[in-house]
Amino acid sequence: MLQYILFSRTGCRINACRSAPCNLLAHNDLLVSETQNAIHSRVLSTKIKMGHPLLLKTANLDPVPEDRPGTEAPPAPASAAITFSTSYTECYDSRFFVEANGQKVNVYTKGVFDDVPLIFFVHGAGFSGLSFGPLVKRVHTEGFCAALDLRGHGLTVNEDGTTAPGDSMTIGNFVADCKAVLDHLFTHMYKPANENAQKKSILLCGHSLGGSIVARLAVELQESYDIQLCCLIDINETVAIGAIPNMMSVLRKKPLAFSSEEALVSWLLSSHTLYSRSSALFQAPGLIHGSQHPNSGRVIADLINSDDNWRDWFIGLNDNFLGKYPGYKLLFIGGMEKLDKETEIAHMQGKLSIEVVPNSGHNLHEDDPNTVAFYFIKYLRRMHLSKKLIHKPFDFKKKDPDEDPIPLEEIKRLYGSGQ
Fold this sequence. Notes:
CATH architecture: 3-Layer(aba) Sandwich
Number of strands: 13
GO molecular function: protein methylesterase activity
Order of helices and strands: EEEEHEEEHEEHEHEHHHHHHEHEHHH
CATH class: Alpha Beta
EC number: 3.1.1.-
Active site: 208, 234, 362
Domain AB hydrolase-1: 119-373
Number of helices: 14
Shape: globular
Helix content: 25-40%
Radius of gyration: 21 Å
Pfam families: Abhydrolase_6
C-alpha cells in the first residue's frame, strides 16, 4: 500500500492510501468502488520492494464480481420462509413509523432526544436504515441518532402495506419524506433539557444516493433548522453520473430473490457489495422480505423500474454540497482517485475536510465502522459539534477535555473488529 500525506491550503492533514485502480460499478447503488484484492496485494507489494510504485492500467484488472462464476444466488422458491438471525436492537433502541406523503416511513433511533445535535443518517439506493447501524452504535455518544428507510426500501411501505414502486423513487419524494421525519422528531420526540438545546441543530450524513439527499436537505432546511454539518460518504456528482450507463446491465445480473439469509450474506460478500460479514447479517432484514411477507426472500427495492430517476438523483449534488451549503463539510472516500475535479478544487481551497478509509468498498461505514467512527467523532469534537460541545465557545488558550477524540484502539476494544 502506498502511503502518502496530503495537506489542504488551510493546513488540514489528510492521511491517505492509494490503491490499485478500481472499476467503478453500478451495484446496489449507482456507484460502487471494486478494489481488485488479488492484483492489489500481488503487484503493489512487488513494486514497493523495487522502489517503483507504478499503478496498473484498469484494462489489466480481473473481471468485475458480477462477471465471476458463483457470485449470483439462485432464485428463492416461492414458499421460502426467510428468518433472520439479527435484530435492529443490536444497534438501535427503537423503531417506529412516521406517516407522511402516502408512506409509512420506518425510522430507527438511538439515544434520548433531550439535547442537540440530532445526527440524521440517510442510506444509499438498494440499502436501508440498517446500513448505518454499526456506525450509530459507535457514535451515539455524540448526539441523538436517527436513520430512516427511504420509500421503496427496507420496512417503509405505502399506506396499504405494499412497497413503493421504482417510479416513485424521485429525489423530490425522498427529500419530502426526510423532511417529514425531521419534523416528527422535533415536534413529537424532542424534550430539550437546557437552554442551548432550544436550537434545532442537525448533523446530516448520507451515503451515496443518501449523500445527494442530505446535500439538498442542507440547502433547503437552512431557514427552518440549524444545519451544522453535511457529511457525505463515497459520493460525488461526476463519478455517480458517469456510472449510470452501466447501471441497468448490472442490475439485470443481480439475483431478485434468495433462498435464505445465508445465501444473501454469501452473495453480498462474494460480490464485494459489503466486506464485513457482521454488517451483512445486520442489514439483511432491510434488503429482502422476511417470512411474514407473501414475497419472502425477494429483494425489496425495485431499482430497475426507478431508472427514469437516476440522473435526477445526482444532478446538482456538487452545487448543493460545495456551493450553496455554507456550513461544515466532511467527505469520507475509499481513495483520493475517487474525487472529481470540482471536489478536488474545493478541497484545495479548504472548503471541506476529507478522510480516506482504505481497504473498504463502497459502503465504508459498514466495511470499517471503527475507522469511520474514529474520524467522525474526532471531527465533531474538534469542531464543537458533539453533544457536550455544540454551541460552546472555543477557548484557543486552553483545550477543552471534551475535545479529545476516542482512540481508535479504544473503539475497537469496545465494539470489536466490525468484521
